[in-house]
What we know:
The chain has 13 helices and twelve strands. With 307 residues, the chain is an alpha/beta fold. The protein folds into two domains: 3-161 and 194-222 and 274-293, NAD(P)-binding Rossmann-like Domain (Rossmann fold, 3-Layer(aba) Sandwich); 169-189 and 225-273, no CATH class. The strands form three sheets. The protein has a seven-stranded parallel beta sheet, with helices on both faces. It has a three-stranded mixed beta sheet with strand order 7-9-11. It has a two-stranded parallel ribbon with strand order 8-12. Strand 4 (70-73), helix 4 and strand 5 form a beta-alpha-beta unit. The longest helix has 18 residues, at 82-99. The model has no long low-confidence stretch (mean pLDDT 95).
Amino acid sequence: MKKALVLGASGGMGYAIVKELSQRGIAVKAFARTENKLKKLFAQDTNVTIAAGDIFQLDDLTAAAQDVDIIFQAANIPYTEWEENLLQMMNNVIIAAKAHSAKLAVVDNIYAYGNAGTNVTETQPKNPCTKKGRIRLEVETTIKQSGVPFIIAHFPDFYGPNAYNTILHVTLQNVLQNKRAIFVGKQTIPREFIFTPDGAKALVQLALEENAYGENWNIPGAGVITGEEIVSILRELTHYQKKVSTVSKSMIQMLGLFNREMREVAEMFYLNETPVVLSGEKYEERIGPIPQTSYREGLRQTLEYLG
């Protein structure tokens, strides 16, 4: 891999992938809609070239993909646009990859697994139980039928530097600002999160392995953790003393009466109550140890970035 294009480079995982590639000495094109944000994030990095553009404009995308060996697809769009636009976005990425004979490494979530439980391996049948899960499965099938060499990596919920659009961000931000904080879902249920730099390390390593292509890969976090344990770590790190309230599904549904985005969030709330927990056995057997920063250290670094 000599040069890579990272789509969604201004988002949490995209940012981490750009950083990981650059640290390995690989030239990177960082692609996102807002040029000023890209410059703020990467202007000081001599390995990174800014490529602002619209992922729905095929000319922007194919121009950015020129001379790259691989495209890392980390871009996302709001839930409310998934049904109409998510497949179109991926088709554009596939066309750009084909135009330049580039490989494709895709950041995916766990929605297509449905309510699969714990220790979920790549052989688990995809049985989505929501509209968004079915859309993700349709996108995955499209990638596999495209003829483009691909890696599809399934990740749990993110947290980390620059990961603002995440379920944990509001909690972390309010704690840091010493405001009354909220936590989405019951705080007693063990769930899985992945520190974005760990996810980026794992995905970039997969992209460097020729025998990793044409397959799905599950990338777990550093074990499971309860909301109570997260709050306890945050109190230790920041001396935060205010109450952390629990956001329930009924509260999200109530907000959904007035806000379409909240209606879409409510559909996926089951993952907070009956979490899907990924197995990393395949990665460990074929690639090596999965990068796993402890939750305490990952939260410390995230708070430091936000501060």
